[in-house]
Amino acid sequence: MDATATIAAASPQHMQALEQANRVRLARAALKRRVGKGELTAAEVIVTCPWEAESMPIMDLLMSQRRWGRTRCRKFLTSIQMSETKSVGSLTERQRRTLAALLSAKGRIDDAQYRAQVGLGYFARAV
Fold first, then answer.
1. Cα separation, 104 vs 118, whole angstroms
2. Helix, strand, or coil here: 64?
3. What are the DSSP E strand ranges found in 16-120?
4. What is the DSSP letter of 14?
5. Is 94 exposed, middle or buried (0-12, 13-18, 19+ CB in 10 A)?
6. Angle 25-103-26 from CA coordinates, rounded to 5°
C-alpha cells in the first residue's frame, strides 16, 4: 500500500518538474534568439543574469551570438581561464563585470587592443 501511495504522489511532482524544465527551455531559446538578433548583448545577459540564464553554461550564451562558434568561445574562455561549463548564475560580481567588459571590448576593437585595454597578461597573449 505504501508503494502505491508513493508512486501516485510522485507523479504530479514529476509532471511539475517537466513543466518547469519546458518553461526554462523555451525561455532560454527566446533569450538566445534575442542575443542572436542583436536585441540583447551577451554582456547584458551576464550582468543582469535573468532567471532563465542562471543555470545556463557560459559557452551556450556565447555561442548564441552571431559569428561565435565553439572554437572562438573556447579560445576566449581559455584566455580568461574560465570553464566552458560554468553557469552564468554561479559567477561572482567581479567575474560578471570582467567578463562583460571583455565582451564589450571584444565587440569594439581588435584582439590585441582589447587584451591591452583590459590588462590581460602574458598568458592571454600566448593563446
1. 11
2. coil
3. none
4. H
5. exposed
6. 10
What digits encode the pLDDT tens for the residues 69-117? Answer: 999 999 999 999 999 999 999 999 999 999 999 998 876 545 555 455 5
Q: What is the DSSP letter of 84?
A: T
From CA 118, how far away is CA 63, in angstroms rounded?
22
- Residue 22, pLDDT > 70, answer yes
On whether the CB atoms of residues 1 and 15 are closer than 8 A, the answer is no
Mean pLDDT confidence for 54-77: 95
Q: Within the chain, what is the greatest distance between any pair of CA atoms?
A: 70
pTM of the model: 0.73
Cβ contact 96:70 at 8 Å: no
Structural domains present in the chain: 2-126 (1.10.8.50)
